[in-house]
Amino acid sequence: MSEYRVDRDKWAEKTFVEHMGNISAEVGRAITAHRNGNKVREDRAIDRAIDLFSATVDVWIGTEYSYRLKEVLRARDEFLRLFFDGTFAEDADNIDRYFTYYAFLARNQHHEQQLQMKRVYANPGKD
What we know:
Elements: H1 8-12, H2 16-35, H3 39-60, H4 69-84, H5 88-122
Helix pairs in contact: 2-3, 2-5, 3-4, 4-5
């Protein structure tokens, strides 16, 4: 395991969609590295993804949104299965597509927040 560890306090400030979108980046890096035969990069991306999955569980456990944990843990299991169960060739595209959906959602959520902030600053007091 690498020495990478996400800042849990900053991670807790993010939304579920942002969590999954960030995990998506590491999933994509791991898949790309595997396809390119770069074992070092693959292992580092897997380590980072595992840490982000764990941080997400830490944030949502015991909250009103803990129902999302089943999805997070299932997604983690499916991601890891790619690399350790010999199913990479059959399932990599499907796993990547699943996580990419969250990356798009997170990006759209971020852009919407940016637009909202611009509106507030352009029209103070007219929210």
